[in-house]
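Please check our next protein.
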Amino acid sequence: MKLYTLILILLQFGNVVVAQNFEDKINQTIKNYVSEFPEQTQFSVAVVSGNQIDYFGQIKLTDTINEIDNSASVFQIGSVTKVFTSSLLAQLVVDKKLKLTDSLQKFFGPKLNDQTITLEKLSNHTSGLPRLPSNLNLLAADFKNPYKMYAEEDLLYYLTTEMKISEGAQSRYQYSNLGAAILTKALENATEKSFSELLSEYIFDPLKMEQSSLLKESSNFQLVQGLDAGGSSTPPWDMNQFEGAGEILSTTSDLSRFVIAHFNEGKAAFALTTMPTFMVNSNLRIGLGWHILKAEDGNDLYWHNGGTAGYSSSVFMIPDTQKAVILLTNVSAYHPKASSVDELGFKLLGLF
């Protein structure tokens, strides 16, 4: 009995050592990146393996990196919002309320300046629309909140008067914040519900994402202070008509729930978003919202990042192996090393 007990103790101790080594490796890797950014920078990281979620949080204070529990801290997720917008589209398609091939014109009364755009093309960035509308003058906008003053009337004027798609007989990938904004408006018109109501009904409430919201509804949440490229405080962006392109606020805890839902084969809408709809090149395909790459093990890797003046985010998931990495930070998208947030995500994926 004593030998058997000793073996059990050794096995358990061995598992603890492995766990400690894994956690130490993750923490050290994150620390190497946090050190490159200004004071008050926070990284909130979730590492997902099946239903197991490990959270890692770090903050830089007086040139010292401290570990913190910030899994419930709220960040603006920027363009990761587009995955949620496309998930709403997929759910409405699964419910047979919409079709991916539906023309955009179907959801607007006034005659639009182009009749060839479909909902799918808006979702997978093949509509031919530019990144931003021609009547949004960023040079004249508030640099700290560039989308705030762009009104619904401005968007409708663009759609009916100035909208112009890229020339060419064949579709091509052209990333567009504008396309996501128009898709959001089409979904609202089709359902007679606001973007916020759709998010709550189809995603936030079912998945119990209780700390996720749009900016205008965030008063009950503790939002991590955004930092500009120089490390000074800057507000989250009020995206107004572009809310479906980048306004959602969330936490690594909530986003873990969202990612794990993609591992469940019974979730038809999420399965639809991960189906390739367009091949950009041999290394990149596009689903509905998701960019599809190849992981080191050969499985499909789904990825989207986001960035605003005060926040950067990146989400990676491999449904076939039920692995995911989620990173939320208050690193400005304009910081010269902002791209290292994505680099860190790829590196963390390779550690487990």
Summary: The radius of gyration is 21 Å. Confidence is low (pLDDT under 50) at residues 1-11. The chain has ten helices and 13 strands.
